[in-house]
Structure formats: C-alpha cells, structure tokens
Amino acid sequence: MNQPFSSVWTREPRPARSATLSRAQIVRAAIELLDAEGLDALSMRRLGAKLGSGATSIYWHVANKDELLELAVDEVYGRITLPGEDTAWREAVSAFAHSMRAVLLEHPWAAVLLGSRPSLGPNAVALVDGLMKVGRRAGFAGMAVDHAWSTLLAFVLGATTPEIAWRAALGSTRVSDTELMKATHSVAEDAVRDHPDLAAHYAQYKDMDVEAGRAAAFDFGLTCVLDGLQARLDRGDAPPSG
Amino acid sequence: MNQPFSSVWTREPRPARSATLSRAQIVRAAIELLDAEGLDALSMRRLGAKLGSGATSIYWHVANKDELLELAVDEVYGRITLPGEDTAWREAVSAFAHSMRAVLLEHPWAAVLLGSRPSLGPNAVALVDGLMKVGRRAGFAGMAVDHAWSTLLAFVLGATTPEIAWRAALGSTRVSDTELMKATHSVAEDAVRDHPDLAAHYAQYKDMDVEAGRAAAFDFGLTCVLDGLQARLDRGDAPPSG
DNA sequence: CGACAAAATCGAACGGTGTGCGATTCCTTT
DNA sequence: AAAGGAATCGCACACCGTTCGATTTTGTCG
Q1: What is the mean pLDDT of residues A157-172?
Q2: Which domain holds residue A112?
Q3: Which of A123, B99, B184, B198 could join A129 in a cystine, given CB atoms 3.0 to 4.6 angstroms apart?
C-alpha cells in the first residue's frame, strides 16, 4: 500500500492503551495553548511542559508538529455549525458563514493554517458534505455544486483572515481599539499623501465603531455572494455538466 | 513623536551611500529565494550567503525579518495590475482579479503573508486607491466603496490561498498533477466512506484537468461576486452612509 | 595626502526551535 | 517472576532570529 500522500488521516491513532498521554489530550492542550498565546507560542517543549511530560513523548502519538496542527485545525472545523436540511438555503448558508467567521475569530491561529493545506480531516469532510447537500437543495448540480460552496468558503476565509490580522496587530499594543485606530491614521495619512482621494475617504472613519464596521462589511460581502449564487440559479447556468 | 504602531513605512530606508548592500537588493534577493524555495527556506543566514555577505549585515538595512517580509509583500502588490479609468468597472474588476490571482500563484509564499498583516506599503495603498476609484466609478459611495473592494479582495485571496495549498501539497511529491489527483482519491474515499453523496460526487472528477477546473471555479466565484455587486447597485443600497 | 568620524560589515554567542536516537521505565500477558 | 512490547524521557544535532562589540570600509575635511 504505497500511499504517495501520507497524511494524518490515513493512519490510525495509536491504540492508546489508556496511557497517561493520548492524542485527544495532546490536541486539546495544543488548542488551549494556541488560543491563549497564538501560533508562535506553540512549541513542542512548551506543550510537553503543559502536559506534564517530556517534549519528545508527544512524538509517540503524533508524527510531527505539522500533523498536530492538522489535527487541531480539524477540531476547529468541527466547531463550525451548519443548519439542518429543513432550513432554506439562503438562511443556511448565511448562518454557516457567520458561524465560521465567529469560530475563526475565536481561534485566530486557525485561519492561516486552514488555508495553508488541504483539509481532509473528518470534520472538514463532513462540513463539505453538508455544504454540498445545501448546494444541491438550492438547485445546483454537477460541478456547479463545488463551485458554489468553494466560492462561499473563499469569501468567508478571505474576509476573516485580514480581520484577524488587524486584531493581532492592534492587540500587540496596549491601547484600546478605536483609540489606536485614530493613532494609526497618522501613519496612514503619511503613507497616503500621494492619494488624496483615499485620505479624504478615510477621514470619515475617525469616529466609527471598528467592530461594527467590520461586521457590516462582512454582511455586505456575504449578501453579494448570496445574490451572485442566486443569479446563477435564476439564469440556469448551474447545469449538471458545465 | 511616539508612534504606537511603528511599521517599516514610517521609517526612511537607510541613506544607502552606494554601499555594497542596499535595501532594494536585499528585497530582490529575498523574493528570488522565496520564489525558488518557499517561505520556510528563507533564513537570514541563507539570504546573507546568497548576497555574498554576512547574515547579520542585513540588519543594518532592515530592522528584522518581519519587516523584510513586509517589504517583499509590498513588492508583490506592485506587480498586480489594475486597468485604467477608461475601462468599464466590471471589466476592470475582472482583470484585476485575474491579475491578482496570477501574481499570487507566481509568488505562492505571498498569499499567506498578504492576509497575515495589515497592508500599508506604498504599492498596496496605491492599489487600494485605484480600486476605490473603480468602485466610485461604478456607483458606490461612502462606506459601500470600502465594502465593495474588500469583498472583492476577500474572494480573490480566499479563493487563491487553498489553490496554492493544493499545489504545494502536490508539488512536494514527484508525480504529475492529474496522476496524483487520482491517487489522492484513495485517501479521500477512505475519509469519505461515511459520506456516500460526496464520494459519488467526486467520482466524476477522476478524469478532469485540474488546472482548468480550478480556473473555472475561480471564474464562477468571480461572476458571483460581480453579480452581487451589480445587484447592490441596482437596488440602490450603496448610499453615502449606510 | 593623512586623519577622523561615520557608515557598513562581520563573527561569536545567546536562547530558542523541531526532531532522531538510544536508554529507560511502565504495564500487560504469559 | 519473566518477558516483551508500549510509552516516556534526556541528550544531541542542526538550524533559527537576533544582539553586541569589534572590525573594516568609506566619505569628508584640513
């Protein structure tokens, strides 16, 4: 059985003969550490310390750090919710998108990883399965089903990632959110001198609730994507093959 | 002048009295190394070696590795093209999206970085300025201008990132693209056993051109976003404030 | 030209990383 | 009790980003 593409998911987890360390514990501890201190803070030594064991003991249960991260990411996938089959597709998709955004904002480290490698974990696969069911229910068929849900995923991921980046950049300083937003303007205005239109435009943001603004932007984009999907259904270019 | 948010762009580059090393050279060499061997392969020591100088000499021209990456990313921003003001907005946006996708596929390392930190470099700012002009020309006003272009950016980034991830995963093996795609199916089918619908669906992909399929998916999504933007213009909910 | 200061480069070193390996301990089964 | 696999551990290796002080190069002034 020569697998050219050996992934975590092709291998069974070690039997775990009720040992003091288990895959599940390790992943849980890793997620806690990641949530609390971010991606850079996760090292095998620190994780070992948190688990009260040697750093290298982890390697018995997990092949390497990458594989551990894959497991952690799939765990995050598992926390994204998708409404049941009785929900209208637009509502279902909207609820899913908001859930995914919320989960990613809660586990900021996952956003980068999620896009960085193919997602083949059980939770990810189950989620895609659910999304495809929604797509077919809406009226898509053939490849259009894939295109539909991957368009949606692309938007949510692409919209949330920079949001997280801003939070991280702001969070590394001490000041409050809006307060620092104003301070950033001096930098921005500096870089923006050659673009008066842009500068004038951003002046109107001086007194805005940043969080609310981001949520509004997300809803705007989501509405666009939904309308776009709807348009393709109406136009009938969502056929079984093409 | 207590900047809370000191970025590369607030500091002037070192005068560069025609030294043997300059910021521009360093960034150029870094990009070459990144293009050739990926993000993980870039270390200050290796970069120094490539430049024929000591590793630590670089720190005279650049504060740290993060700052170097910011410069490299902005360079990538600079290679994305946006059609001039005489182009209809739909065409302009479409051309931009395809250009951005192409550039990111050409510099895969940039995709992750691009979403990981706020983009305040001159090229990034210029690009946003241009996008906002297009947005206003289309008929958006107020915050809707921002929402429009950030929706677009979100889609392109979110769509291209997983594409790159797949390429990297496949590229790390020796086999050809479609060939390995088939081999992957055995893994997929394995993980997919509990999802017969999904498995059946993916069976139809066995004999498909992967690259072409991805391009089609991208165009599908882009059309959705464009239609969605158009819908908001028609409906008139792109007012100066709301 | 020599002198001197500033600019630029460099090597050594510090604390950290992921991980391979051999020795060691633990637990289960006979 | 003995044996043998399962699980843990410490050490070591090669590499990383970055700091710091010493060193070399370079431009300017007398």
Answers
A1: 90
A2: 82-235
A3: B198
